[in-house]
């Protein structure tokens, strides 16, 4: 199963078996870190796997789940770090799903830092993973997501490639299924906006940025699978526009 195929069946696992996974799979996860594509390569990151077969791993946070393993993404804290973390972690989640492993994304949960983790790096997001006790996959048709007509403002007719890319974006997971992304769509480009949280709150802002990063990773993966070159760039002429209750994120052009 490719990452693109995994987008259509990815499902959050909430009930894990505490059985260990194969040792070679753990090794492949650590190796896959080298293949992760960052949204911003200037932000330093590091991944660590914490074993929890004895259920003694201590995570700090309100919403945790008991799993045999936790994958922690550490990052520098600088502008765009939460979006970058979501972008990278969703690639890892899809990779694990494609290998038959269940995942659960933990936000605002923290782990004890490993001895080899740079003190300037902070745990931004944690992925619980392991063998699921319940059904691993779902169908795209069962995903509770807004329709493209509710997410997009279409400025022109679009082709099948653009529609497929937007559909992959639509299926991205999000905190409490809020789906904070909105799109202004032309035939060969998309302007991406993020719905502002209902109240000014740093935590809600960070959650939305994680979600936007996950959604953008779906766009990147879909385009790569279809052999479509895309450019992702923030445009000043769009950035200067004021759109009520939305913040401009970036623009995507199909080449």
TrEMBL record:
<comment type="similarity">
    <text>Belongs to the nitroreductase family.</text>
</comment>
<protein>
    <submittedName>
        <fullName>Putative TM nitroreductase</fullName>
    </submittedName>
</protein>
<dbReference type="InterPro" id="IPR000415">
    <property type="entry name" value="Nitroreductase-like"/>
</dbReference>
<dbReference type="GO" id="GO:0016491">
    <property type="term" value="F:oxidoreductase activity"/>
</dbReference>
<dbReference type="InterPro" id="IPR029478">
    <property type="entry name" value="TM1586_NiRdase"/>
</dbReference>
<keyword id="KW-0560">Oxidoreductase</keyword>
<feature type="domain" description="Putative nitroreductase TM1586">
    <location>
        <begin position="3"/>
        <end position="223"/>
    </location>
</feature>
<dbReference type="Pfam" id="PF14512">
    <property type="entry name" value="TM1586_NiRdase"/>
</dbReference>
